[in-house]
Amino acid sequence: MTTFLLSCVLVFLGGAIGGIGRFFVSGLVARRFGETFPWGTLTVNVIGCGAIGILAAVMLDSATQGPSNLPLWAFFVTGGLGSFTTVSSFALQTLALARAGEPLDAVLNIAVSLAACLLAVASGFGAAHALLGA
Amino acid sequence: MRSWGLETMPRQARLLMAVALGAASGSLLRYLSSLAALALLGSGFAWGTLFVNVAGSFLIGLYSTLTEPDGRIMAGPILRQGVLTGFCGGFTTFSVFSLETFLLLQAHAFGAAALNVAASVLLWLVAVWVGYRIGTRLNRLKGS
How far apart are CA A18 and CA A75, in angstroms? Predict the structure, then answer.
């Protein structure tokens, strides 16, 4: 029970930090590269996926696929990186592209997001494993 | 709503607080949803992540439409960002979805991985569209 309550507090705190981080990074990218294509959301999602790949390699038990340290996982992964990345903004921006008569950009956003995010997880995971010598 | 003197805070600080609080509560609700899905449906498929991402996509479509300038609900920019960027953003997650898909691929569960990607993207987009359509309908309703 105490582990559960501790995890709740850590997810809450990590979620606040991840959300603020997403707000800053996606805003920075959107101002720098324009808002006709959702570069900001794509950027936070790819960065967050690379980071979750690294943390999964470091913290997940290879046999059970469960985290070795629950509180650390709750803070950094469930809270922090979970909140740093977003599906809701991705979905809303894809709909906005389709409604604005840019169906090609909408399809491109879906394809690039999925491909880049999965590649980022795999790269982060593989790189961390190689560096750890596992 | 009482503001407990928060109106004296600088605007940017109030905006950051709204995003932080929204993201924190969205993340906590996502964590509890995943625990509930695990208890109810088992660990064979990532139902918890699918549920929060679909529900969050619906909510962002609905709330963003209802709070548009000519929308039915009057919400200031700070509340709006708190709900959309904060809560919906914190509630949904692309990183955990990608990690779960990657772990399925690593376990050679290629069918489950492909199904997770296809069903997720389809349902996210349908959900945000349904939210937007319901919001548009509600905005058009006459009277009260």
Answer: 10
